[in-house]
Amino acid sequence: MLEQKYLSMLKMMCDHKGFVDTLSSYSGISYQKYVDNYKKAQKEILAYGVRVSVKKNVLLDMIEKENISYAYIHDIKLSQYQK
Description:
Blueprint: H1 2-14, H2 17-27, H3 31-43, H4 56-65
């Protein structure tokens, strides 16, 4: 699912060259870089980490069903009233 999301986001950027050209003046990432990354990602995707914001039961389910070898829990909320 993450692989498909990543490919979809890259494809969206590749499909909107004018927007990417405007954005590149701020981001420094050229349209061609998006195209190259999309072509490369279609052949091979390696993921080293993902940042997510999930509820406890979703995290436990991910750990049980996915190949997760390490989890760093940051900014945990123990109560709905906690900021």
